[in-house]
Design a protein that fits this description.
This protein is mainly alpha-helical. The protein has one domain (about 10-115): 434 Repressor (Amino-terminal Domain) (Orthogonal Bundle). About 70% of the residues lie in helices and about 0% in strands. It has helices at about 10-25, 30-35, 40-45, 55-65, 70-75, 80, 90-100, 105-115. The longest helix is centred in the N-terminal third of the chain and has 16 residues, at about 10-25. The chain is globular, with a radius of gyration of 16 Å. It starts with 7 loop residues before the first helix and ends with a helix. Mean pLDDT is about 85; it is low at about 1-5.
Amino acid sequence: MKTGRRRDPVEAFQRWLLDEIHKRDMSFRQFAEFVGVGHSTVARALDSTNAPAPSIEFILKLSNATGVKAITLIGLAYPEVAAQEAIPVTTELLAQRIEQLPENIKTAIMALVSQRIG
């Protein structure tokens, strides 16, 4: 394997990135423009055969554009960093998505979770 290239950790980041692109109903080029990077940066990040670990600069731009905390994105792309955190990255990402929902939906989610927990 080439230096700087990783497969498994990048897959979670790629899934998140594709979800963000689809959620906004954008092409890769449109999303790249939205984020403020070249379309080749997005294409490389989504390369299923040899995707490089995303740069911190790219992660920061994604964070600014999408509203997802940079530390959450770093945790997706670099799970060795996330392992040091007390809250799993997937839980943090879910919490951030819930926070962006309308208040009535957040209330319904909290009621459902409260029922399940006890």
